[in-house]
Write a structure and sequence with these properties.
Number of strands: 2
Number of domains: 1
Largest sheet: 2 strands, antiparallel
Radius of gyration: 13 Å
Oligomer: single chain
Strand content: 5-15%
Strand order of the largest sheet: 1-2
Shape: globular
Distance between the termini: 36 Å
Order of helices and strands: EEHHHH
Length: about 70
């Protein structure tokens, strides 16, 4: 299924993830399953896009100059 993500607070655009497993999405979004368990094959960027709508390039801009 195609999932439109929340609006990114950095750039104001929404993201799209294609081929999201509908059952995994339901378990995460509506049944409270941990996103790591629901989407074990997604990378951190994909999971963050689902959670907050923040794109990988926006995340890097947001944290540029901050040391870990």
């Amino acid at each position: 299924m195609r999932v439109y993500t929340p609006t990114c607070r950095m750039c104001g655009s929404r993201g799209v993830l294609d081929d999201v497993d509908a059952e995994s999405y339901r378990l995460w979004r509506f049944a409270g399953m941990n996103i790591l368990d629901a989407f074990p094959d997604f990378d951190a960027d994909q999971r963050e896009l689902l959670i907050s709508g923040t794109h990988a390039h926006c995340w890097e801009r947001m944290w540029a100059g901050h040391d870990e």
